[in-house]
Amino acid sequence: MFKLDEFKELVKDYRDVADFLVVYIAEAHATDGWAFVNNVEIKRHQTLGDRLVAAQTLVDLEPGCPVVVDDMSDVTACKYGSLPERLYVLQAGKVVYKGSKGPWGYYPSEVRTFLEKMN
Fold first, then answer.
1. What is the DSSP string of 14-56?
2. What is the largest CA-CA distance in the chain?
3. Higher pLDDT pick, 36 / 109
4. pTM for this one?
5. Helices then strands (H, E): number in the chain?
6. Which helix (H) or strand (E) holds 68?
7. What is the pLDDT of residues 23-76, one digit of tens each?
8. Where are the domains of the chain?
9. Between the CA of residue 14 and those of 17, 53, 65, 112, 115, what are the distances in Å?
10. Has domain 4-118 been given CATH number 3.40.30.10?
């Protein structure tokens, strides 16, 4: 959420040359776990329904692109090593950019630079 505005600008600026997608995964900072102060009130997901409700919080903030939800086995998070968050660029089904793990390695500005070079 910390860099959501920067991500939204990236989506807005590059929506004509790239398709964006957010995959909502397990909540990294659930309020009934390891949480940040003043974080959004989201508890650990016990069911897919819990995860869908939590994802709606992000949808309501209008990220500018579709939001899909990882299943409860966390197959996407495991495959892409994305807990708590990570940015990727895929081209023709292959990863061409893999950002560092967030939150400290989550830099939409790096994706911007990468897309500028590709464009």
1. HTTT----EEE-S-TT-TTSS--TT----PPPSSHHHHHHHHH
2. 43
3. 109
4. 0.81
5. 4, 4
6. strand 67-69
7. 988 776 555 555 455 556 676 778 999 989 989 988 999 999 999 999 999 999
8. 4-118
9. 5, 28, 11, 8, 8
10. yes
